[in-house]
Give the backbone structure.
Amino acid sequence: MEAAGDSAGARGGLLCVTGGSGFIGSWLVRLLLDRGYTVHATVKNLQDEGETKHLQALDGADTRLRLFQMDLLDPSSSMRPAIEGARGVFHLASPLTLHTQDPEKELLEPALKGTLSVLRAAKDCSVHRAVLMSSKSAMLPNPAWPADKVMVEDDCWADLELLRERQVQGTLSKTLAEKAAWEFAEKEGLQLVVLNPGTTLGPFFTPSVNTSLNILLQLLRGQELELDAVYTGWVDVRDVAQSAIVLYENPSAKGRHLCLASMERLVDFADKIADMYPEFPVHRIKADKQGWLMRDKEPSKKLIDLGVRFVPFDVTIRETVDCFRSEGLI
Ligand SMILES: NC(=O)c1ccc[n+]([C@@H]2O[C@H](COP(=O)([O-])OP(=O)(O)OC[C@H]3O[C@@H](n4cnc5c(N)ncnc54)[C@H](OP(=O)(O)O)[C@@H]3O)[C@@H](O)[C@H]2O)c1
């Protein structure tokens, strides 16, 4: 069999992870070190201990992890030093935020230009395979996609006009970035495979709470969620990191991969959290505004066929809540 990534039997070698300091990135770095790889991880600011200390504390980090400074918004910040010599690149670095002052500058530019710069460096450094962390947001919402039609990942793209109209800039930026990545890969002959995770939850060892974890935190604190345009279901962070590795290591993995433990509406999510945690003032959502979204217990068939098994909802939620408690956040 052709070795597209490193086959499971031949682990090791150098890999680069951009956005290694983040919620998903830190889990990916951790799992890669555990699997024997040497990792070059990028962080925005090497002087900021909040971005580096939790990575340097990982098992194997002292000998097999090297951190590089890389800012997608800084044109003088080169991607090459971190990527040089790597057999594979996982591109995760991207601003993840629901609210911005200047979406063009804060979201679109780093997502789009940043992705292309990383892929350009990957191509120039003869990287064997690149894994792009896109999002389920690059697939949905798409009103033209029948709600009862099972998702075919490679065909289903979020509707750009609708995203512009609703001003969901984060979703727009991820969709444009993924489209540009596919164009680049095809034109330049770069081996690319894409992961499209949903709202990612789970235990964290980053010193701060990112945007997706904050959704659960807000819910537990009794705040109302207005995410009808973006929420399509959750997935455990360890499954996202593991899926990215499976895509890298498995030569048969091709195209786009929806990564959701279950596809569900926001109303379902809030109800389940309210049922699990009656001691918290969870706001149940009364009006289901997500008629466009099919409910599906197995939306990630492509990943399941590659051997990925998803952590159950109550395990993910309890372990996330335990982390919130131990950090004194609730
Ligand atoms: N969490 C989710 O629900 C979810 C769902 C679908 C897709 N994703 C995608 O998964 C990836 C990782 O997200 P995450 O959940 O781990 O978010 P996160 O915790 O906010 O991490 C984002 C990472 O990107 C880095 N980054 C942001 N802006 C940057 C810039 N201008 N230059 C260089 N690096 C920059 C951050 O670096 P600093 O730590 O230095 O700021 C951090 O390492 C992103 O591509 C995101 O779009 C996430």
